[in-house]
Design brief:
With 429 residues, the protein is α/β, with parallel strands linked by helices. The chain contains 16 helices and nine strands. The protein has three domains: 2-193 and 298-328, Rossmann fold (3-Layer(aba) Sandwich), CATH 3.40.50.620; 213-295, Tyrosyl-Transfer RNA Synthetase, CATH 1.10.240.10; 342-428, PH-domain like (Roll), CATH 2.30.29.80. 52% of the residues lie in helices and 10% in strands. Helix 4 (86-96) packs parallel to helix 13 (299-329), helix 7 crosses helix 8 (158-175) and helix 10 (243-251) packs across helix 12. It starts with a strand and ends with a helix. The protein binds tryptophan (TRP). Residues 5-7, 9, 42, 45, 139, 142-143, 151, 153, 157 line the site of tryptophan (TRP).
């Protein structure tokens, strides 16, 4: 069964834009598909920006309550909190050790922070935490730990999914098996971005949002503050570019939207149009608002829903998978020595030096390739120390003239000797 995984940032208080752009389509998708769905609160990620503990806790509560109130069914989908799954943080380290730093240097969020510093003539990394830099690795762990096939995201997150693929692939390559499924980003083009009060995209950073669960009176006040033009009642209005119309369309049925379009053409007054918009939003939000308030009033219930989700998920997937990965990287039970160590086997096929004393009582060495073919034979030395010193010199050298010493005889072309020395150096590095 396809696995679909959605990460929810736990910062701020959800607004109508989050609802229309993320919550509503995700919940509809969770009901429509027969996929195995994962929804989680990315609270560890939130620490990168939010370092006020009370707000972190509050925001996690509000966002959990929002998803539940909006209809997420924790007995049909996996619903959990990232920080309840310690295996995610452990996997983050394994991935950190295969992730290319150069790839992280290219992450948009990090690069944008560096660019801002440059514009302000600051040090490149001034004020940038390692957490911001490592963000994509933690996100990759979120995705890879549950072998998600598809990750629905906005355009700004596509690069992160590509990085998750890259880190997963490197791990698979280094440890020689397909431990990780490589995820695909799924971008939903049909979801429109909602305009805010001033007509720009609704976003906390523009301070133009309408809180999702504002009390009725507050919602009404917010709707009445939406920017319109100055056309009087009776004058025909443009739907094109009208934030009010777009907001209406996001909540109304197709029929209602057609009627509103007609009303615009017939010169509906802005006051009336705002009243209709308010009623339309409120009709859809009111039942959810009621559930939301009931949930927020019982935080212990939300806590136990989240813990239950994480507990089951750890048992079923996270704990066994991390056990497999620990084994893969070599964090193993010392009492269980492998019969044939693959690394040791690989070593025995490497070129090697052998020191020995011959019947003339002098000290010699030879250098052989992995198959035991003799490449270099030394002459006799008075002491093993002298033989060892020349071996050390040869091991370091990458130049043909270093091989031109009378103390050794090459039995193969000098290039082959140099290649074997290089192979040995790489294996020992
Ligand atoms: N970075 C995502 C965002 O800002 C949130 C997130 C964290 C996420 N981990 C994830 C999304 C894993 C998808 C998969 O929206």
């Amino acid at each position: 069964m396809t696995r679909v995984l959605t990460g929810i940032t736990t910062s701020g208080t959800p607004h109508l834009g989050n609802y229309v752009g993320a919550v509503r389509p995700a919940i509809a998708a969770s009901r429509a598909s027969d996929a195995e769905s994962f929804y989680f609160l990315a609270d560890l990620h939130s620490l990168i920006k939010a370092q006020d503990p009370a707000r972190t806790q509050r925001s996690t509560l509000e966002i959990a309550a929002t998803w539940l109130a909006a209809g997420l069914e924790p007995d049909k989908v996996w619903f959990y909190r990232q920080s309840d799954i310690p295996e995610i943080t452990e996997l983050t380290w394994f991935l950190t050790c295969v992730a290319g730093k150069g790839i992280l240097n290219r992450a948009h969020a990090y690069k944008a922070a560096v660019d801002r510093n440059r514009a302000d003539s600051e040090d490149d990394d001034s004020g940038i935490s390692a957490g911001l830099f490592m963000y994509p690795v933690l996100m990759a762990a979120d995705i890879l730990i549950f072998k998600a096939d598809r990750v629905p995201v906005g355009r700004d997150q596509v690069q992160h999914i590509e990085m998750a693929r890259d880190f997963g692939q490197r791990f698979n390559h280094v440890y020689g098996r397909d431990y990780f499924v490589l995820p695909e980003a799924a971008i939903d083009e049909s979801v429109a971005t909602l305009p805010g009060l001033d007509g720009r995209k609704m976003s906390k950073s523009y301070d133009n949002t309408i809180p999702l669960f504002a009390p009725r009176a507050e919602l009404k006040k917010a709707v009445s503050s939406i920017t319109t033009d100055s056309r009087a009642p009776g004058e025909a209005k443009e739907t094109e570019g009208s934030a009010l119309f777009q907001l209406y369309q996001a909540f109304a049925s197709a029929d209602e939207t057609a009627q509103m379009r007609q009303a615009y053409a017939e010169g509906i007054g802005w006051g009336d149009a705002k009243q209709k918009l308010f009623e339309c939003i409120d009709a859809q939000i009111a039942p959810m608002r009621e559930r939301y308030e009931a949930l927020i009033a019982k935080p212990a219930d939300i806590e136990s829903i989240l813990r239950d989700g994480a507990g089951r998920l750890r048992e079923k997937y996270a704990i066994p998978f991390l056990a497999e990965l620990r084994e893969a990287v070599g964090l193993r039970d010392l009492s269980q020595q492998p019969k044939v160590d693959a690394k040791a086997a690989a070593k025995s096929t490497l070129p090697s030096f052998k020191q020995y004393r011959d019947s003339d009582n002098r000290f010699y060495f030879k250098f052989m390739d992995g198959d035991g073919v003799l490449l270099v034979q030394s002459n006799g030395f008075d002491s093993p120390k002298e033989a060892g010193q020349l071996i050390a010199v040869l091991k370091r050298s990458d130049r043909a003239d270093a091989m031109e010493t009378p103390e050794i005889n090459l039995l193969v072309p000098v290039q082959d000797v140099l290649a074997a020395l290089r192979q040995l150096r790489e294996a020992e590095a």
